[in-house]
Amino acid sequence: MRATRAFQMAKIAAEKGIDVIVFLVDDAVFLAKKGMAEHVKAPTGDEFKTYLEYLLEKEGSHLCL
C-alpha cells in the first residue's frame, strides 16, 4: 500500500529530528481506526503498523485526519 511508503519517509524525517505532520485523506483515514493497520504492507514487505506506532510515540510527530 502506498501509505506505507509515505509513513516510512515520515519516520526517517522524525529520526533526523524533523517535526513531522501527516495528513490522512480519502481512504487513508480508515488506517487510523484501531486494528486497520495490522495487515497493511508495502510491496517491499515493509509493515505500515511499524511506522505508524513509531510516529504516534515520537514527540514532534502529529497525525491529522
Question: Can you put this structure into words, describing what you see?
Answer:
The chain has 65 residues and is an alpha+beta fold. It has one domain (2-64). The protein is built from two helices and two strands. The protein has helices at 2-15, 48-57; strands at 20-23, 61-64. A two-stranded parallel ribbon has the order 1-2. Helix 1 packs parallel to helix 2. The chain is globular and about 30 Å long.
Give a short synopsis of this structure.
This protein is of the alpha+beta class and 65 residues long. The chain is 37% helix and 12% strand.
What is this structure's SSE topology?
Blueprint (H helix, E strand, L loop, with lengths): L1 H14 L4 E4 L24 H10 L3 E4 L1
Parallel strand pairs: 1-2
Helix pairs in contact: 1-2
Helical residues, percent = 25-40%
Task: Please tell me the overall pLDDT.
Answer: 88
Helix-strand makeup class: alpha+beta
Q: Tell me the number of strands.
A: 2
H/E element order: HEHE
What percentage of the residues does DSSP assign to strands (E)? Answer: 5-15%
- Total separate domains: 1
Anisotropy-based shape: globular
Q: List segments where confidence is low: pLDDT < 50 over at least 5 consecutive residues.
A: none
Radius of gyration from the alpha-carbon trace, in angstroms? 11 Å
Count of helix runs: 2
Question: What's the end-to-end separation, in Å?
Answer: 18 Å
Biggest sheet layout: 2 strands, parallel
Please give the order of strands in the largest beta sheet.
1-2
